[in-house]
Amino acid sequence: MEPEQVEGMAMMYESPEDIELYPALLAERALPGAALGPTLACLMASQLLRWRRADRFWYENTVHPGAFTEEQLLEIRKATLSRIICDHGEEVHEIQPNAFLLAGHG
């Protein structure tokens, strides 16, 4: 937390144990290269993993009839967004390997 945030929290709460989770998460210093602090990043990752495991339509869940085989999953995992854009985009002549990053950043 930044010193100003600590001062603000000290004025609003009698004790650090009284601070509510949401304001504390928002006040937490972001991880390098991220918009979230470590606690919120951990909570979100944990929740997203649980949602994925519980989603019967998630393509990697193999416990339902008609699920992809391991061989099919290996082929699916070879696909990249950059490859899909190159294959199906109009007038796309080149693209960086990771379409999720800004050009020149990876």
UniProtKB/TrEMBL annotation:
The keyword Glycoprotein applies. Keywords: Glycoprotein, Oxidoreductase, Peroxidase. It holds the Pfam family An_peroxidase. GO terms for molecular function: peroxidase activity. This is Peroxidase.
